Amino acid sequence: MIVTLTINPAIDHNVMADRLVFEDRAYILSTADTAGGRGINASCVIQSFGGQTLAIVTSGGQSGKLLQKYMCGCGFPVEVVSIANEIRTNLTITDRQGLTVKLNHPGPPLSQIELDRVEAAVERKLEGASWLMICGSVPPGVPPGFYSKLVRMAHKHGVKSLLDTDGEALIEGVESGPTVVAPNQQEAERLLNTALITRSHFLDAAARIRQMGPQSVILSLGSRGAIGVSERGAIEVVPPRVDAVCPIGAGDALAAAFVWAMDNNSDFADALRWGVAAGSASARLPGVTFASLAQTREIYPRVEVREAK
User: Fold this and answer.
1) For residues 96 and 72, is the Cβ–Cβ distance under 8 A?
2) Helical H segments across 25-135, by residue range
3) Which of left, alpha, beta for 243 (phi over 0: left; psi -120 to 50: alpha)?
4) Which residues 6+ apart lie within 8 Å of 238 measured at CB?
5) Nearest to 223 by CA among 239, 246, 237
6) Sheet containing 78-82: order of strands
7) Tens of pLDDT, residue by residue, the chain (309 residues)
8) Pairwise CA distance, residues 163 & 102, whole Å
């Protein structure tokens, strides 16, 4: 069982427009509301790949009720931790050329009692779990060391962990020794307080992040693929060129497919190859949509794994 945690979920309001331009009108072609959050997205990918997953989410207010309604047909079990405040609503606008704008609310504050409930729910579900995926931002007021506590809890239970977050939660989280940490380029730049532009920058950044505490690092680079650093060294995983329609969520697909492959006894390099294939296949789809296993298999043979030197 792969357990995912989303403590800052959202209702994602997705808008498809004919074009995104400044100082001129554009037209909305379609709209759709979905359950949003990195952990929720990861569970959707894992379930569609045939893996076993359980999603732990917070939920409060009318928007929380809507979130739970959207998740009723997701096909995997959901553990809901009730909170007092409304969960957030985020906005994603994509045009037919693949240009995307994503605007997120920071989310509702959580009380210490609510955080204790989240922690207790995670500890209960770690029994029998193989992986814990700790995904997404932390709402305002949540101590930056909260995710670190969960990483250590997973380690105590013999459960592997993947940390996919940003900001202070990432800074403290990497030091707690997660099995894998999976920042994208922008998150890595904020973590290291430096711009990453060239290939050598990416390789150096991934190595530096691993020195901060995690066992392995996946640096996601969008259409350029990913850099992976583990105890066996560094690799570059390069996808084929695809026509990207909407890149939002591709990183979530990458992390989920990587954990799914690791859970099915792939080695690190092959698991990351699956991850990059899933991210690339998902970017070809309209809106925040995730590729199926069949669509990912179509891309997988064309993904190149190179030893980084």
Assistant:
1) no
2) 38-48, 61-71, 112-125
3) beta
4) 224, 225, 276, 303, 304, 305, 306
5) 239
6) 78-82, 53-59, 2-6, 131-135, 160-164, 180-181, 216-220, 226-230, 233-238, 304-307
7) 999 999 999 999 989 899 998 889 999 999 989 999 999 999 999 999 999 999 999 999 999 999 999 998 889 999 999 999 999 999 989 888 878 888 999 999 999 999 999 999 999 999 989 999 999 999 998 998 999 999 999 999 999 999 999 999 999 999 999 999 999 999 999 999 999 999 999 999 999 999 999 999 999 998 899 999 999 999 999 999 888 777 778 899 999 999 999 999 899 999 999 999 999 999 888 767 899 999 999 999 999 999 987
8) 22
The rounded distance, in Å, linking the Cα atoms of 285 and 48 is: 15
List the Cα angle 262/263/269 in 5-degree steps. Answer: 10
Which domains are seen in the chain, by residue range?
A: 2-307 (3.40.1190.20)
CA-to-CA distance for 137 and 25, rounded, in angstroms? 33
Rounded to two decimals, what is the model's pTM? 0.94
Integer-rounded Cα Rg, in Å, for the chain is: 18
Q: What's the rounded Cα separation, in Å, for the pair 287 and 61?
A: 26
Residue with tokens 């060129």: 241
Sheet of 88-95, strands arranged across: 28-36, 10-17, 88-95, 100-103
Q: 32 pairs with which residues across the strands? A: 14
Cα separations (Å) of 271 from 174, 274, 283? 21, 5, 19
Please identify which residue in the block is written with the tokens 């800052």: 8
Q: Is 240 helix (H, G, I), strand (E, B) or coil?
A: coil
Percent helix, strand and coil across the chain, each rounded to 5? Answer: 40, 25, 35
d(CA 183, CA 180): 10
